[in-house]
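Intended use. Records like the one below are meant for learning the mapping from a protein sequence to its folded structure. Do not use them to infer anything beyond what is encoded.
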Amino acid sequence: MSLSGDQHNTWMTRFQAAEAHQQTQHTRWREAHSMVEGEWFNKQVGISQAGLADDQQPTPVNYATAYTNTVVAAIYARNPYWFVDARHGKFLPFAKSLELVVNYLKHELNTKQEIKRSVKDAIINGIGWNEVGYTAQFDTLEPSAQDVEPLINRLANGRVTVSTDPNDPTLWQVDGDGWTEAHEPMTGAEWWTFLTAR
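Structure written out for the chain above:
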């Protein structure tokens, strides 16, 4: 999907306004980071330890880092599980499958450290960002069976096992307890309906 000239100009104006607003905060963010790193007094106040006798040397104590690390651990404890609730009963299968997918991707992409870093940024700066993106080319690229099988098997939660059909690689081979069937690839909602019917 490409943008028209007017849409492009609108979005560029928004990006430039956001960048200009962000620039106004950089000095404050750098100061907050230097405080957490224990360099604030040297950088901001100009306290120097040179020329002081050994018994007059100040003992550096960095409470900001200890506090920040404690709060991050309290906010993001034990890699929490994300829940997805449907606002309407007809979306319940989709919400359940989405919940499994986002928790699987969180684990697969190992996002824990990135999220903890953005929580730390939010504590220090008042705002934290995580970049979430994709590289899909819509209407031009179908996922391969190797991409889909681990996710489908994770959604099945051990009830069945899915693999590529050895006789026809365009089909799924679904193995259950004492049975095997070949199926056309299914959407997430179709797969959930198939699983709940078993």
